[in-house]
User: Which sequence fits this backbone?
C-alpha cells in the first residue's frame, strides 16, 4: 500500500475526530504505514510528527490511546516529550507510560524517572512497573526510599527492585525488614528470592547463594518463617546442584 501524504492526511483527519465506537476502517492506512515505518526512517519520522501533533491537539481519550499504541511500535526519542506530558494525567497516564516503556534510549527512561518523583502515589505504582521492565538503574535510589514508606508504595518498590536485581537493588532489599507488616515483608522476601533466581540463572552462583543464606539466617528459629526458611534452603541446594553440574 502506498503512503502518499494526501492519503495519510485523510486518515489522520479521521483519527483527529475519532471517539469510542466510531468506525476504525479509515485507520487501515495508518496501521499499514506504522508497519512499513519499521524499515523506513523518513516515514517513521513523518508518522511520529503527526502522532505528536494529535497528542497536543486536545483529541479524545480514544484517539490518544490509539496514538499511544502506535508509538509503542515506532516511537523514538522524538515522541518522548509529547508522551511525557500525559504521565501525570489520570486518564491518559497508563497508555503514555506503556509507550514510553517500550521506546529505547535514555530519554524515555529519564521521562519516567522524572514522573516517578512528581505524579500521584497511585500513578507512581505504574511508573515503578515500567522502570522495572526497562531494568532502569537510575530509579533504584528512589525505589530504595519508597521501600521505607507506606505499603501502597513499598510493595511495588520491592517488586521493582526484585526485577531490576542490580547490586544496588539487592543491597536495598537486603537492608529491608523481611518481616515487616501489611505485606511489605512478604514482598521483600519474594523480591530477594527473585533476585537470587535471576542471579543463579545467569551463572552468578556465589551472589545467589549469599541471598539464600541471608534469608535462611533471618528465618532460622522463627516458627512463622518456616516458608521462608524452606524456600531459602531449596535455593541453597539449587546452588549446590549448579556447582555439581559444572564439575
Assistant:
Amino acid at each position: 500500500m502506498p503512503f502518499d501524504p494526501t492519503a495519510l492526511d485523510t486518515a489522520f483527519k479521521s483519527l483527529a475526530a475519532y471517539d469510542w465506537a466510531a468506525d476504525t476502517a479509515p485507520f487501515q492506512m495508518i496501521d499499514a504505514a506504522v508497519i512499513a515505518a519499521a524499515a523506513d526512517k523518513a516515514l517513521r519520522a513523518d508518522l511520529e510528527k503527526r502522532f505528536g501533533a494529535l497528542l497536543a491537539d486536545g483529541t479524545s481519550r480514544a484517539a490518544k490511546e490509539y496514538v499511544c499504541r502506535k508509538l509503542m511500535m515506532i516511537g523514538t526519542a522524538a515522541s518522548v516529550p509529547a508522551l511525557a506530558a500525559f504521565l501525570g494525567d489520570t486518564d491518559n497516564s497508563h497508555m503514555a507510560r506503556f509507550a514510553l516503556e517500550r521506546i529505547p534510549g535514555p530519554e524515555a527512561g529519564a521521562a519516567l524517572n522524572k514522573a516517578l518523583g512528581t505524579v500521584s502515589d497511585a500513578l507512581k505504582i505504574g511508573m515503578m512497573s515500567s522502570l522495572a521492565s526497562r531494568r532502569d538503574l537510575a530509579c533504584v535510589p528512589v525505589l530504595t526510599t519508597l521501600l521505607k514508606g507506606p505499603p501502597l508504595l513499598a510493595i511495588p518498590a520491592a517488586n521493582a527492585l526484585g526485577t531490576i536485581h542490580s547490586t544496588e537493588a539487592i543491597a536495598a532489599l537486603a537492608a529491608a525488614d523481611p518481616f515487616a507488616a501489611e505485606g511489605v515483608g512478604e514482598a521483600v522476601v519474594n523480591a530477594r528470592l527473585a533476585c537470587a533466581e535471576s542471579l543463579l540463572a545467569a551463572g552468578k552462583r556465589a551472589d545467589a547463594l549469599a541471598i539464600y543464606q541471608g534469608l535462611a539466617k533471618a528465618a532460622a528459629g522463627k516458627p512463622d518463617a518456616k516458608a521462608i526458611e524452606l524456600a531459602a534452603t531449596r535455593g541453597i541446594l539449587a546452588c549446590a546442584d549448579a556447582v555439581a553440574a559444572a564439575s
Notes: The longest helix spans residues 226-246. The radius of gyration is 23 Å.
